[in-house]
Amino acid sequence: MDQPMGYLILLAIAAIPAGLFGTFLLAIATGVIHEPTAIETVAHNYGLSWKTGRHEV
Fold first, then answer.
1. How would you class 1 by CB atoms within 10 Å of its CB: exposed for 0-12, middle for 13-18, buried for 19 or more?
2. What SS3 string covers the chain?
3. Per-residue confidence band for 3, with pLDDT thresholds at 50, 70 and 90
4. Rounded distance, CA 45 to CA 57, Å?
5. Phi-psi region of 31 (alpha: psi -120 to 50; beta: other; left: phi over 0)
6. What does the pLDDT look like over 40-50, one tens digit per residue?
7. pTM for the complete prediction?
8. CA distance 32 to 25
9. In this structure, what are the phi and psi dihedrals at residue 9, rounded to the nearest 5 degrees?
10. How many CA atoms within 13 Å lie on the side-chain side of 49?
């Protein structure tokens, strides 16, 4: 099978965004990327206030 090189280049160009999009969807589905819960937000803000409050003395 002797395919012209143009088709392989087009396939590579199309495969890269499709792979990135698939990886993004997988990250959302597995919970790697998620919106923080209320408890996570409170804990994060408390940690930030603790760090900034200690340096004022």
1. exposed
2. CCCCHHHHHHHHHHHHHHHHHHHHHHHHHHCCCCCCCHHHHHHHHHHHHHHHHHCCC
3. low
4. 20
5. left
6. 999 999 988 88
7. 0.57
8. 10
9. -65, -45
10. 6
